[in-house]
């Protein structure tokens, strides 16, 4: 897979930052936006969506990945996550994202100063569990 253009990374970061405006986080007040870049250059947004029944809260990265799949895209080249502090995806999100390309680029954006940290998902989740560990289907 070819290197992602820096203009696409900039677009992705902008979209994640804008998507944060839609975050529904009345319980934690921690607002997170996300955006995923799919194979044909399209970008799909996500944000965290919380619930009074706390365990039902959904992270921004997972809503973005699920929205991409729901619109027909199963290969994610990069994901941006925008928050105060520029946090990296939680463990559950790392596993969820790995399903759609273990080598995707992960960009964590601090909305306070615009600073970014960039990783490969495979480095954030070594030894991921994947379909090769499942028994073969007949
Ligand atoms: N959250 C995300 O959406 N993404 C992350 O990477 C970390 C945490 C959300 C989940 C919950 O709505 C809130 O932040 C506080 O944990």
UniProtKB/TrEMBL annotation:
NCBIfam families in the record, alphabetically? cyt_deam_tetra, PRK05578.1
User: Disulfide bond: present as a keyword of the record?
Assistant: no
The entry marks the following residues as binding Zn(2+), namely 59, 90, 93
Q: Where is the CMP/dCMP-type deaminase domain?
A: 7-132
The GO terms describing molecular function are: cytidine deaminase activity; zinc ion binding
Q: Which gene encodes it?
A: cdd
Might you give the EC number(s) for this enzyme? Answer: 3.5.4.5
Residues recorded as binding substrate, renumbered to this chain, are 48-54
- Its name, as the record gives it, is Cytidine deaminase
**Species of origin:** Rubripirellula amarantea
Family assignment? Belongs to the cytidine and deoxycytidylate deaminase family.
Any one GO CC term of this protein is: cytosol
């Amino acid at each position: 897979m070819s290197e992602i253009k820096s203009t696409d990374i900039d677009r992705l970061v902008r979209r994640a930052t804008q998507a944060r405006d839609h975050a529904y986080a009345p319980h934690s007040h921690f607002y997170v936006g996300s955006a995923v870049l799919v194979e044909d250059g399209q970008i799909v947004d996500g944000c965290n969506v919380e619930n009074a029944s706390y365990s039902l809260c959904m992270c921004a990265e997972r809503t973005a990945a699920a929205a991409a799949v729901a619109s027909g895209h199963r290969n994610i080249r990069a994901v941006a996550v925008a928050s105060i502090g520029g946090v990296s995806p939680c463990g559950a999100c790392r596993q969820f994202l790995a399903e759609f390309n273990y080598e995707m680029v992960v960009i964590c954006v601090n909305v306070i100063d615009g600073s970014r940290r960039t990783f490969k998902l495979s480095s954030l989740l070594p030894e991921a569990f994947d379909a090769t560990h499942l028994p073969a289907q007949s």
